[in-house]
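Supplementary material to the annual report.
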Amino acid sequence: MTKTQTKQAKATAAKDWNPSIVVFACNWCSYAGADTAGVSRIQHQPHFRMIRVMCSGRIQPSFVLKAFEKGADGVLVSGCHIGDCHYIFGNERALEQFAKTKEVVHLLGLEDGRLRLEWISAAEGGRFAQVINEFTEQVRKLGPSPLSADSDGGQ
Amino acid sequence: MANLLAIAKRTRAWACYDCGKCSATCPITRAGGAYSPRRQVLATNLGSLDGLLDSSNLSACLTCMMCDLRCPAGVNYTELVLRLRELSFREGVEPECPHGGVLQSMMRIMAAGKTKQDRLAWLTGDLKTSKKEGEVFYWTGCTMFFDALFPELGVNTLEGTRAAVRLLNRLGVTPVVSPEERCCGHDLLWNGDKENFERLAKHNVKLVADSGAETLVVSCAECLRTWKLDYEPYFKGKPPKIVHLTEYLAEHLGELKFKHQDEQTLTYQDPCRLGRHLGIYEAPRKVMAALPDATLVEMPRSGKRAVCCAGGTWSNCDRFAKHIQVERLLEARATGAEALVTACPKCQVHFRCAMKDPNLKDKIEIPLRDLATVVLDALAE
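Predicted assembly:
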């Protein structure tokens, strides 16, 4: 392959590139919200893998960092709206854990836009689709994570 | 098998004559844990991996080196654990980090070296540092990460880091504090992940060599051990002079002017890495003795006999570790000292965690301070 060809191949690859996003969703609200989006046949971006946990309060910094370590381009943490937690205060714990996670991700040098927290209820299928679309676009603009195999090495 | 034989030879495990002093002195065994150093040595000598690499057993060791010092046959027990952990990591057994592996992920992301860290936001305007070159390199360690991860414990290890820079400034030194510093890899090494440790070691050794620094001042006891003992194979040419902050201060005590303060009594926790691993007992005591109005009261178990904070290597935390910490804090309180001083940020994290016990809080709480902040407070303007 000549240099121009390599450049062209890279440009096409970038255009066709889709991010790999990890979505953490709680069993009672966000996961059910994704389900609502599905049964209502709302179209949305498909480039994410969803991990269901019982409560967003379970999502510790280690979960998110492991995803980034393994090359995720973006991580979305989601749970019930404040006040609606199935376990009363689990999402308040989630807020505390998320604040720590955000700081560590920042210290490590990953862009702040690769991590996001959203509250999505079981009824909000439309909102789920909208959040997924927005976040996918946001991550797509940032490009591959420097830690992913798609990246050319960062720095 | 051949591996095990080589390990037994290298660590002198074969010299064991089964006296059991190691297990009698092991803080975990004494606290009632199922774990026993003696059994580990004997199993190695038997040459069978059966049960030897069981992670609940292998990661229970604090690697505090208490048994090494007691052993009349000179078995390098802590090195044995290190080699066995390397072996076990290769077999796919990983310790279960009490924090869900967040610290291991952090270290591996740093080892990958593909991101630009934002680790110097704590540097305030009044601190004089240089980013690239200088005679003295100050190694910060990962205190900014500890403070970010454990705010609920009231951990403030950065205070010690800032104090260290300020003290160096007061001695007329503008140290290199580099944004390119990465974790020293201590915990990855002790978790058995040699590959990622090597990545970090090579990067860090080059970073300090490129700065042209002749002296490397380190304030974390674990980083210091890693630099002094575990980085040795990676140095090219003459390595810098590597000293702990307390050693540097002890050397330059004459240049520091102290003021009179309210009288205070302090007690000192010897970090296992600084004490038993490196034999540095005198420097921190010399520095404290130089403070005009501070009196050091030793705990019954101090110096070589000092008990570890029971949290080394991010691979073990259980009820036995908690028991050890509580006993240690009771011991510190019993001295009547107004503060427990330490020279390692990890001790601070783990003791602060233990002090959160709601049932024991009133009995074991004691102000916990980094030695650097104590010295800084005593300086004359």
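Chain B touches chain A through 23 residues (CB under 8 Å).
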